[in-house]
Amino acid sequence: MSPRERAPRPGPTTPCPCGRGLPYGECCGPFLAGGHAPTAEQLMRSRYTAFAVGDEAYLRRTWHPGTRPVRLDLDPAQRWTGLEVLRTSGGGFLHTEGTVEFRAHYRFGGHADVLHEHSRFVREDGRWLYVDALG
C-alpha cells in the first residue's frame, strides 16, 4: 500500500477495527454511515475506526464545535493497529458527560507507538460529541 492510500473501509462482516469483536456492520459501521453512537465509549470506538479508515468527515461531525479544529489532516502513512479501552466514567444512556481512557496503537515510519488518552465527551441534543483530551 502506498503512503497516500488509506486502509479500505471494512465490509459489513469484517471484524470492526475498534476491537469489540463484532462485525463492522454491527459495530461502528452504522455510526460512520450517519447513525449516532448511544454511549461515549461507542463514540470513542467509532472515532478510532474513523481514524483507521481515514474518515475525516465523521471525525469532524462527531467533534464538539467549540473545540473542533479548522482543519484535520490525517496522515495516510499512519496505520492504526489496535485499541484498548482502559476505563470509562459516565458516558452512558442517562448521562450528559463522560470520559474514556484508552490506548490506541499505531505504526508510523516503520515504528510502533501508542497514544494514551483520557477523552472527554458531552451529549448535546441526544448526540455524543468528542470535546478534548483531559490534561
Automatic annotation (TrEMBL):
UniProt xrefs under InterPro entries:
NTF2-like_dom_sf, SEC_C_motif, YchJ-like, YchJ-like_M
Q: Which residues form the YchJ-like middle NTF2-like domain?
A: 39-133
**Top-level taxonomic group:** Bacteria
HAMAP family given in the database record: UPF0225
Family, according to the entry, reads as follows:
Belongs to the UPF0225 family.
Name-wise, this protein is UPF0225 protein OCS65_13770
- The species this protein belongs to is Rhodococcus aetherivorans
